[in-house]
């Protein structure tokens, strides 16, 4: 979910540094590798489609608020 959501939200958020500091995908990948998955296995995991429609920057910020609250 995070990988797909981050890819969809990044182009919408004007402040890229603000957005990238809040991304979780790289941390989740490290967690999976710490649990024994190889980098290739992590890369082969299935991805979902973004679950939130984000047509505007305010919508992306609202989605970011929800996503950050889930972690």
Description:
By secondary structure, the chain is an all-alpha fold. The chain contains five helices and no strands. It starts with a helix and ends with a helix.
Search tags:
single chain, 71 residues, mainly alpha, 5 helices
Tell me briefly what this model is.
The protein is an all-alpha fold and 71 residues long. The chain is built from five helices and no strands.
Could you tell me the number of beta strands?
A: 0
- Major sheet summary line: none
Q: How many helix segments?
A: 5
In terms of structural class, how would the helical and strand content be classed?
A: mainly alpha
What is the N-to-C order of secondary-structure elements (H for helix, E for strand)? HHHHH
Oligomer: single chain
CA-based gyration radius = 13 Å
**Mean pLDDT figure:** 91
- Unreliable residue runs: none
Indicate the overall shape: elongated
Q: Termini separation (Å)? A: 12 Å
What share of residues are in beta strands?
A: under 5%
**Percent range of helical residues:** 55-70%
Question: Which helices and strands appear, and what pairs or packs with what?
Answer:
Elements: H1 2-9, H2 16-20, H3 25-34, H4 39-43, H5 57-69
